[in-house]
């Protein structure tokens, strides 16, 4: 009976996913009251249908099934999230989520004389103005002071309801529910060990960057060894690639983004370049519906959610990307990342709809980034005419450029959920959330707030994935997996030997490597992730060894340059950063309330960029 029940769900779940994705797309790509209302109605009806399926699934003794695949399917159906709540609480949770999404997506702030600046593109552009200390500080404060406190008032009741839903699903709390995706009892210990292995390399990069920032901002960095969060080129200090021109030892730094502009790269050229790489491996072309229905640049006639995302519309051919693309090396990586999701969708579309997911959340995020590792080589940049024979650069320049995004991201990817878990479990009370956030930012990332903060702020809430309650551990896992995948595929393609180092491997056109990739992707969620990892990486264990091997030349280069630097920030204490700030932008709660009243649907969240 269990098999018949699951088989009978394929068609209704396919229909549900199609309708839900379609209504979510309509709103995300055209923010209007009408689309919001329609999506809210669909979301409510979908939740009620999922609740009924979940109730039926729980009548089976599925925990004791001997068929692991069937057990995995039943776990999926029986875990219904917010839909487990009674109707009144479900509507409340949906409303709270909508308000947080509205605040995050619609907030505009004033920086100096510039008014009504949205996060994208204006504030993001501001954060890249290396050397302009005051503008960086004003921009950071404007965003965090406006968004965080406005989110906080809805976040606390939302977490209470989400924890209640997790309990109704049979979990202790949201942390347990989120980690259940990995089907691994010791997942927290696994990621702790991975971070322990990687933190020495991160601290070396941190020490080098801090040394160079002291030259740019003399007397501005704290004596405890931390780096102020607004000085790293990114609103959340999660990627530091903007700093590259100021960190390289070359007189004329590589500027691939500038070359892209000069060579007239646009969104179409960037997406076709990504498609060409995937098809060179024997994977699929994008469908005609992809090209006709995707939104690849920001429309001028309407508001949309610009955060890049990949969409599966669950009809076999309709796959889409929504992205406000600009020609830059960072955006080229994002294009490959999002198209990696689409390729994954296409490879597992033959499976039961409940198995049309990544082997675990990290797999889905790793696929496109895996390809981007090949793109970020001198050979492939040369193929794309983005590196010219006359370009001069140190042999480790491309590794440094890569590490400023890859290595720099690791502690942030590790700590964001680690922080939220303490809230979900009650370890961190609601009146200490901001202090705990900065405790972890300092402890793991060596990043401190620009000025003193307190509990009237909610700086973690100024991050997309917190405001929208999206798990973040997947990105940390993905950054580990992509290097394991890459090393295995490079080995299969015979592209690594004593004359061809790992970090220079480009698997473009290597069909044997593509066959391995395709085999792993086609399994979707049908097998435990260690089984899929064995196919795609040649091992059943996640390991930091491939990542460390990739950056070995850079680590040696860093060692030579930080001989006189104190590596780490052992004396840093979060209490030194808590208190009443000497100045801060006032939070316009009335404006936040107006924005909240706009309302945003509870999206059926797709695979999104970090």
Give a summary of the structure in a few sentences.
This protein is mostly helical and 610 residues long. It has helices spanning 2-7, 10-28, 33-57, 68-78, 87-106, 119-126, 133-168, 174-179, 187-216, 244-247, 256-262, 267-280, 288-293, 329-347, 361-375, 378-383, 397-424, 433-445, 464-467, 473-492, 511-521, 529-537, 545-550, 552-561, 589-598, and strands spanning 108-111, 114-118, 227-228, 309-312, 319-322, 447-448, 607-608.
Write the layout of secondary structure elements.
Elements: H1 2-7, H2 10-28, H3 33-57, H4 68-78, H5 87-106, E1 108-111, E2 114-118, H6 119-126, H7 133-168, H8 174-179, H9 187-216, E3 227-228, H10 244-247, H11 256-262, H12 267-280, H13 288-293, E4 309-312, E5 319-322, H14 329-347, H15 361-375, H16 378-383, H17 397-424, H18 433-445, E6 447-448, H19 464-467, H20 473-492, H21 511-521, H22 529-537, H23 545-550, H24 552-561, H25 589-598, E7 607-608
Parallel strand pairs: 3-6
Antiparallel strand pairs: 1-2, 4-5, 4-7
Helix pairs in contact: 2-3, 3-4, 5-7, 5-25, 9-17, 9-24, 12-14, 14-15, 15-20, 17-18, 17-20, 20-21, 21-22
Account of the 3D structure:
The protein is mainly alpha-helical. It has 25 helices and 7 strands. Strands 5-4-7 form a 3-stranded antiparallel β-sheet, sandwiched between helices. A two-stranded antiparallel sheet has the order 1-2. The protein has a two-stranded parallel ribbon with strand order 3-6. Helix 9 packs across helix 17 (397-424). The two termini are 41 Å apart.
């Amino acid at each position: 009976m269990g098999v018949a029940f699951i088989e009978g769900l394929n068609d209704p779940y396919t229909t549900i996913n199609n309708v839900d994705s379609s209504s979510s797309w309509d709103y995300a790509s055209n923010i209007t009251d009408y689309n919001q209302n329609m999506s809210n109605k669909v979301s409510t009806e979908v939740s009620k249908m999922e609740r009924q399926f979940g109730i039926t699934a729980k009548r089976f003794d599925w925990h004791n099934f001997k068929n692991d695949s069937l057990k995995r399917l039943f776990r999926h159906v029986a875990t219904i999230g917010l839909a487990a709540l009674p109707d009144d609480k479900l509507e409340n949770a949906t409303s709270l989520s909508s308000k947080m999404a509205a605040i995050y997506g619609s907030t505009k702030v004033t920086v100096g004389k510039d008014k009504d600046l949205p996060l994208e593109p204006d504030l993001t552009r501001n954060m890249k103005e290396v050397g302009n200390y005051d503008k960086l500080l004003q921009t950071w404060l404007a965003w965090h002071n406006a968004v965080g406190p406005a989110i906080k008032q809805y976040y606390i009741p939302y977490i209470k309801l989400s924890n209640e839903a997790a309990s109704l699903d049979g979990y202790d709390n949201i942390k347990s529910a989120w980690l259940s995706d990995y089907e691994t009892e010791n997942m927290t210990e696994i990621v702790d060990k991975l971070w322990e292995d990687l933190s020495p390399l991160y601290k070396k990069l941190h020490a080098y960057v801090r040394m160079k920032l002291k030259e740019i901002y003399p007397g501005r960095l704290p004596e405890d060894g931390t780096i102020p969060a607004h000085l790293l080129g990114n609103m959340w200090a999660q990627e530091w690639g903007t700093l590259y021109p100021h960190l390289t030892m070359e007189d004329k730094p590589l500027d691939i983004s500038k070359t892209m502009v000069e060579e007239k790269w646009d969104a179409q050229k960037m997406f076709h370049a990504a498609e060409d790489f995937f098809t060179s491996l024997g994977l699929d072309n994008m469908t005609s519906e992809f090209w006709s229905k995707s939104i690849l640049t920001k429309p001028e006639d309407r508001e949309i959610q610009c955060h890049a995302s990949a969409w599966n519309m669950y009809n076999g051919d309709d796959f889409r990307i929504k992205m406000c693309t600009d020609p830059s090396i960072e955006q080229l990586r994002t294009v490959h990342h999002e198209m990696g999701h689409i390729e994954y969708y296409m490879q597992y579309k033959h499976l039961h709809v409940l198995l049309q997911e990544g082997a675990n959340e990290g797999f889905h995020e790793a696929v496109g980034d895996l390809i981007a590792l090949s793109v970020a080589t001198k050979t492939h940049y040369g193929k794309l005419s983005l590196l010219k024979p006359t370009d001069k650069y140190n042999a480790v320049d491309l590794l440094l450029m890569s590490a400023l995004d890859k290595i720099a991201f690791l502690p942030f990817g590790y700590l964001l959920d680690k922080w939220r878990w303490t809230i979900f479990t009650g370890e961190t009370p609601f009146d200490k959330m901001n202090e705990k956030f900065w405790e972890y930012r300092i402890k793991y990332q060596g990043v401190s707030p620009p000025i003193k903060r307190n509990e009237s702020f909610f700086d973690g809430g100024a991050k997309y994935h917190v405001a929208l309650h999206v798990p973040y551990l997947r990105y940390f896992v993905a950054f580990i997996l992509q290097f394991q995948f890459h090393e295995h595929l490079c080995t299969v393609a015979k592209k690594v030997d004593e004359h061809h180092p790992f970090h220079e491997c480009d698997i473009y056109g290597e069909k044997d490597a593509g066959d391995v990739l395709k085999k792993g992707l086609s399994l979707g969620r049908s097998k435990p992730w260690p089984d899929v990892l064995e196919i795609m990486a040649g091992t059943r264990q996640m390991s930091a060894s491939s990542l460390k091997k990739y950056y070995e030349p850079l680590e040696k280069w860093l060692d030579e340059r930080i001989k006189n630097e104190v590596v780490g920030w052992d004396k840093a204490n979060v209490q030194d950063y808590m208190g009443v700030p000497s100045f801060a932008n006032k939070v316009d709660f009335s404006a936040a309330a107006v924005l909240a009243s706009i309302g945003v649907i509870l999206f059926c969240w797709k695979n999104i960029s970090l």
